[in-house]
Amino acid sequence: MKTPFPFEYIADSNSFYGRKEEIETLVSHVENSTNVLLFSKRRMGKSTLIKNTFSKIEKKYTVIYIDIFNIITAQDFAKLLLKGITDAQKGDITKSIKWLSSLFKRTRIEPTFDATTGKMGIKPVISDLTFEELMEDAFNALFEISKKKNIALAIDEFQQISTIKDVKIDAILRKYMQEPYNISYIFSGSKRNILNSLFSYKSPLFEMATPMILNSIDANEIYTYSKKHLKVSKELINYIYKISDGETKLIQMVLHKLFLEKKKIDEALIDNIISEILVTKNDHYKSLFEIFSTNQKKAFKLLAKYKKEMFSNHVLKEENINRASMQSSLKQLYDKEFIDREDDIWFIPDRTFELWGERVLNQ
Fold first, then answer.
1. CATH code of the domain in which 195 resides
2. Are strands 119-125 and 108-114 parallel, antiparallel or unpaired?
3. What angle do CA 235, 238, 244 make, to 5 degrees?
């Protein structure tokens, strides 16, 4: 039986719950061809929100979703954009190939066949083109498509463009975004400081999108959905919510395991499940921790335990680390994306890793 609490893959319409207000906001932006800068911590469900919103409007609008987390070059970005455009085409393959071929100046389109599913599809065939040529092809197609239907173009993990140093992708995007076409750009990501810098004053994308913060799903929404599948009280859902610090993925993981257990649910069972999760993650987290320098280990351990007051004397004395070394170590862990920072407050974005630090490192 398919779990009603998916946590390893995108929830479909049957297992997606909550977020009614957020969906309405995104749909309103698409209707009005305005842009959104969607931010949340990782594992809060940004991608799930976008894809479920798109599933509700894809008959009326052209929806394009690309995840640029793994891009290394500017060409990678442009290639993903072209692939997103071709993947968004529905209906007769022959007509789609003909239609897209008329829009692209340089990119060829050819049919594909998936031997596993037996389904036909299409893909862009990209020759030795420059980033600028690829982008010109992509946006020429987008502009023409938008004349027939409004477009919603979501670029997930958008902060990754900051890793591309030889090309100013944000400046190129601004040039195209200023054109008066029916396109709503949705930029989403989890690195708030980087995203803010990309849209800050004097940056190319300044005032090009409306900020939207995705907070935790309301605990009442979790309870309303969960009680359809579990014999669980509101108090216990609140207990799970508190332990998980509102992180959607961990909440779903706990609920999934409760669903499989089919036992009477109480705090002891929930604690056992959390412990089991930490055991399954132990080898992975231990291997990560072992690559930290001595001072980085001290900084991470203290951050997991205290979360705040990281530079107070009693915290620093506990691990015999001075203020400068603490600051340097936190910065190094931040650069490696093991920790994050918001409004000068450091935190561990992976709640399970944070719990491991609390319960394993600080025993």
1. 3.40.50.300
2. antiparallel
3. 145
CA dihedral 135, 168, 153, 136 (to 10 degrees): -10
- Spatial distance between the Cα atoms of 118 and 82, rounded to a whole number of angstroms: 23
Domain span including residue 305: 229-361
Q: Could you report the per-residue pLDDT of 230-283, keeping only the tens digit for each?
A: 999 999 999 999 999 999 999 999 999 999 988 899 999 999 999 999 999 999
Clarify whether residues 190 and 281 are in a common domain: no
- Strands 119-125 and 151-156, by their bridges, are unpaired
Please report, in angstroms and rounded to a whole number, the separation of the first and last CA atoms in the chain: 38
Last residue of a domain, one of 183, 213, 243: 213
| CA 155/CA 80 separation, integer angstroms | 10
| Residue range 76-130, pLDDT digits in tens | 999 999 999 999 988 888 888 899 889 988 888 888 877 788 788 888 888 788 8
The two tokens of residue 115 are 């031997």
Please check whether residue 128 is in contact with residue 108, taking contact to mean a CB–CB distance below 8 angstroms: no
